[in-house]
Design goal:
It is built from 10 helices and 6 strands; from the N terminus they run βαβαβαβαβαβααααα. It has 210 residues and is α/β, with parallel strands linked by helices. It folds into 2 domains: 138 residues, 3-Layer(aba) Sandwich (Rossmann fold), CATH 3.40.50.2300; 60 residues, Winged helix-like DNA-binding domain superfamily/Winged helix DNA-binding domain (Arc Repressor Mutant, subunit A, Orthogonal Bundle), CATH 1.10.10. Strands 2-1-3-4-5-6 form a 6-stranded parallel β-sheet, sandwiched between helices. Helix 5 links the parallel strand 5 and strand 6. The termini are far apart. The mean pLDDT is 86.
Amino acid sequence: MIKVLLADDHQLIRAGVKALLEEKGDIQVVGEASNGVEAISAYIKHKPDVVVLDISMPVMDGLEACKQLKKIDDGAKILVLSVYNEQQYATRLLVSGALGYINKQASQDELYEAIHCVADNQFYLAEENKDIILTKLLRMKGQRDLIDTLSDRELQVLRLLGRGKGIKEIASSLDLSSKTIDNYRYRIMTKLNLHRTVDLVIFAHNHNIN
């Protein structure tokens, strides 16, 4: 029996994924979390075999949660289940220690296969994205494109700016000062050679950073 922890801020999605997984009979959802902080607490409490983790969550997002989980337990097996564009996020999560990345549009059988692969300590990437992601991972060792020059926190701030969030709102959601967020915004514009906040919003939209 594979013990799974589900971390997603949408209760209906958690309920749906749980029902699909437990249909198979060899997977048991032992814990649920609606944000990264809850996911860490639930991991310590339940010691799951696999963590199925969403990226976009309040309080602490999936990318930061992945890093923290690997600090707590280097052997933590993490599968990211997200709606986000794989090319922009998968490489960062794999570098941070996740073993797999799968889109929420995947079939039940693909999700089931991904969990089994990760439980066996194997990498799992969907076939249609595998070549792109592996190429991007290799590129990260050499010359990186503009998006890859952003730190994880800068990408997080860019994503929120792209959603139309204001500086104060972002600062509150990330538990940082407005000045710190404004500094991140300035650094992002410098790295991307942009000059206005609206240009950041357009850039995020054009590159599927949402």
